[in-house]
Amino acid sequence: MYCLQCLLPVLLIPKPTNPALMETHVMFIVLYLIGFFLERKPCTICSLVFLTAVSLICYSGVGNCIFWGNCEGHHCENG
């Protein structure tokens, strides 16, 4: 489970409040994860635990996922 020490902090990186920076944030997260999986080659159990955690966070509520923001397109709801 040593592999999770570098994967779990990714879930704690705050999303930017500015919608213009969301694409950059998503690109950083995706490239970090691809680089991590290619370089460190985490074990299957750690990979499954991380992917399960990401899927549970993403589908637990709107706006919680690390891969997309609270806004759809360029129009955000006021309120």
UniProtKB/TrEMBL annotation:
UniProt GO cellular component terms: membrane
Compartment annotation: Membrane
InterPro entries: BCALP
Source species of the chain: Drosophila rubida
Family as reported in the entry's similarity comment: Belongs to the BLCAP family.
Name the UniProt record assigns to this protein: Bladder cancer-associated protein
UniProt keywords, alphabetically: Membrane, Transmembrane, Transmembrane helix
Keyword Transmembrane helix: yes
Keyword Transmembrane helix appears in the UniProt entry: yes
